[in-house]
C-alpha cells in the first residue's frame, strides 16, 4: 500500500507534470472506482489543474473549484504516460481503473491489481466532504506536529502501539510497512500498549516517527512514479523481510500473521529477545 512517503513523492511528481495543464478527459474504466457523482467527472474537463496536495494517503488535484481526490488503497497505483494511447480505453479484466488525459497528450492511469477493488476516486468541491479526509488526524511531518502533541494523542489509548500508528484518525499517512519501520527504529514492541509509554518512550517514538518518514520522503524525492515502489521496498529494514538478518543486530527478523496482513519485527531490538505470539501460525501448525 502506498503510504505517506510514496504519496508525498507522487504529489511532487504530479506538481511538476500536471499543474498549469488542462484536463481534456477523465475516463473511468471500472465504474466502481467512482465514489461520488455530483459534480460529475466531466466537471474537470476543460479546467486547468492549479495545485496538487496530499492529505494523509489521499492525493488531491485541484482544478478551479473542483477537486479530483484519489486514495490508492492497498493495490492501487498511478502510472504516468508521456503519450497516451489513441482512442478511449476499453473496459475489461485488466488493472486499468481510470485515465486522465491532458491537452499535451500526456496523462496518467490509475490501476489496481488483485480482486479486492478498493481504489477510490472522488470528485468534490471541498476535500472535507470526503469522510476519509475529514476524519484524518494530524500529519506527522507537519511543522506543528511536536512531541507534546504525540504524547496527547497516545494518552489513554488502550490499544497496541502498532494499531494506533496505523489509525488514520490518530496520525495521518502511516500504514503497515512504515509502522513496522518506525517501531524498529524506536526499539519498541508492536504489542506495547500506547497508554503505557513513558515520557522517554514517547520521545524515542517521536524521533523514530519523524526520522523514518522524512528519510523515506527524501529517498523518493525526484523519482519518477514508476520507480517509487522499488525504492520503498529497498529502503525497508524489517517490513517484508521475514527470515533475513536484522541490519542493526543480526538477529533473525520474525513475523506475526493476521487474517489480512502481517507485521515484522526484530526480537533482540524490540522485544527483549522474546518472540511474539503468532496465534494464527500456531493454529495452522496444529
Topology:
Elements: H1 4-18, E1 23-28, E2 51-55, E3 58-63, E4 66-71, E5 76-81, E6 96-102, E7 107-112, E8 120-124, H2 131-134, H3 147-154, H4 161-166, H5 176-185, H6 199-220, H7 228-235, E9 254-257, E10 262-265, H8 267-270, H9 279-285
Antiparallel strand pairs: 1-6, 2-3, 3-4, 4-8, 5-7, 6-7, 9-10
Question: What tags apply to this protein structure?
Answer:
4-stranded antiparallel β-sheet, 10 strands, 286 residues, disordered C terminus, 19% strand, alpha+beta
**Cα-based radius of gyration, to the nearest Å:** 20 Å
Order of helices and strands: HEEEEEEEEHHHHHHEEHH
Whole-number mean pLDDT: 93
What's the number of extended β-strand segments?
Answer: 10
Q: Low-confidence runs (pLDDT<50, min 5 residues)?
A: 281-286
CA(first)-CA(last) distance: 32 Å
Number of helices: 9
Query: Sheet bearing the most strands, described?
Result: 4 strands, antiparallel
Q: What class do helices, strands and sheet pairing give?
A: alpha+beta
Helical fraction equals 25-40%
Strand content: 15-25%
- Apparent shape: elongated
The largest beta-sheet arranges its strands as 1-6-7-5
Amino acid at each position: 500500500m502506498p503510504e505517506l512517503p510514496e504519496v508525498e513523492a507522487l504529489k511532487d511528481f504530479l506538481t511538476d507534470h500536471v499543474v498549469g495543464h488542462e484536463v481534456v478527459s477523465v475516463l473511468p474504466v471500472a465504474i466502481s472506482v467512482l465514489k461520488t457523482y455530483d459534480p460529475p467527472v466531466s466537471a474537470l474537463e476543460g479546467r486547468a489543474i492549479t495545485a496538487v496536495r496530499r492529505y494523509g494517503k489521499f492525493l488531491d488535484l485541484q482544478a478551479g473549484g473542483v477537486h479530483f481526490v484519489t486514495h490508492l488503497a492497498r493495490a492501487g497505483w498511478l502510472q504516468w504516460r508521456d503519450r497516451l494511447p489513441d482512442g478511449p480505453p476499453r473496459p475489461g479484466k485488466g488493472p486499468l481503473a481510470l485515465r486522465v488525459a491532458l491537452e499535451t497528450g500526456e496523462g496518467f492511469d490509475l490501476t489496481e491489481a488483485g480482486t479486492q477493488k478498493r481504489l477510490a476516486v472522488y470528485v468534490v468541491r471541498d476535500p472535507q466532504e470526503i469522510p476519509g479526509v475529514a476524519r484524518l488526524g494530524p500529519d506527522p511531518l507537519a511543522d506543528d506536529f511536536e512531541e507534546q502533541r504525540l504524547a496527547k494523542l497516545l494518552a489513554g489509548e488502550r490499544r497496541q502501539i502498532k494499531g494506533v500508528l496505523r489509525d488514520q484518525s490518530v496520525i495521518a499517512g502511516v500504514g503497515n510497512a512504515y509502522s513496522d519501520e518506525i517501531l524498529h527504529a524506536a526499539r519498541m514492541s508492536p504489542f506495547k500498549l500506547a497508554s503505557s509509554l513513558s515520557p522517554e518512550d514517547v520521545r524515542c517514538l517521536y524521533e523514530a516517527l519523524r526520522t523514518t518518514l522524512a528519510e523515506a520522503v527524501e529517498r523518493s524525492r525526484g523519482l519518477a512514479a514508476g520507480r517509487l515502489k522499488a525504492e520503498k521496498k529497498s529502503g525497508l529494514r524489517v517490513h517484508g523481510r521475514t527470515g533475513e538478518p536484522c541490519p542493526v543486530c543480526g538477529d533473525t527478523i520474525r513475523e506475526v500473521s493476521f487474517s489480512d496482513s502481517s507485521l515484522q519485527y526484530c526480537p533482540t531490538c524490540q522485544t527483549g529477545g522474546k518472540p511474539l505470539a503468532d496465534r494464527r501460525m500456531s493454529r495452522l501448525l496444529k
